[in-house]
Amino acid sequence: MKIINTAIPSVKILEPVVFHDERGFFTEAFRDNWFRSNVADVTFVQDNLVRSKRGVLRGMHYQMEQSQGKLIKVTEGEVFDVVIDLRQASDTYGHWLGVTLSAQNKRQLWVPEGFAHGYLALSTHTNLDYRCTNYYHPESEVAIKWDDSDLAIAWPLETNQKPLLSVKDACAIPFQLAPKFKC
């Protein structure tokens, strides 16, 4: 597995070694001891699988209690995956990072605790699989507006394209009003 550093140092892109032959391919998608030694010493407690159709935008979500680190990969299709640093003591506080993840590039994105996360589905059908370091805690979940002008996230939307949003995402709050992490 190759680690690709990003503009936000604690967020990492993981690129697996893929072995191809006439039968197909093989890759090691996750190894606990390698991940703990090279990326983050965390324990994953919950796996989630999400299917979205093209144009669905999910995010920007996080939990104030039971904050979650996430290891994200796409098993079908392609997404533009976005994280926002909400750690007030960080040099990259308030910065966002966008990465294309796809079944074809097999890249994974490590997002530590203290970040909001979301993505835009770019394919007809997209399956996104992510591991979490803590359990879902809906009572403390926060959603930041996906199109907040203070963040100016460059979503790869076509001209005049409106994303498909849940009620929660359509009613999300501005970045300036969202609770932040002190660490």
In short:
It is an enzyme of class 5 (isomerase). With 183 residues, this protein is mainly beta. The chain contains two helices and 13 strands.
Oligomer: single chain
Indicate the mean pLDDT: 96
Order of helices and strands: EEEEHEEEEEEEEEH
CATH topology value? Jelly Rolls
Structural class: mainly beta
Strand-residue proportion: 35-45%
- The CATH superfamily turns out to be Jelly Rolls
Measure the end-to-end span: 29 Å
**What is the helix content?**
under 10%
Inertia-based shape: globular
Kindly state the number of beta strands: 13
By DSSP (H or I, 4+ residues per run), the number of helices equals: 2
CATH top level is Mainly Beta
Tally of discrete structural domains: 1
Low-confidence stretches: none
Give the CATH architecture: Sandwich
SSE blueprint:
Layout: E1 2-5, E2 12-15, E3 18-21, E4 24-27, H1 32-38, E5 46-53, E6 57-63, E7 70-76, E8 78-85, E9 96-102, E10 108-111, E11 115-121, E12 125-132, E13 141-143, H2 167-170
Antiparallel strand pairs: 1-2, 2-10, 3-4, 5-12, 6-11, 6-13, 7-10, 7-12, 8-9, 8-11
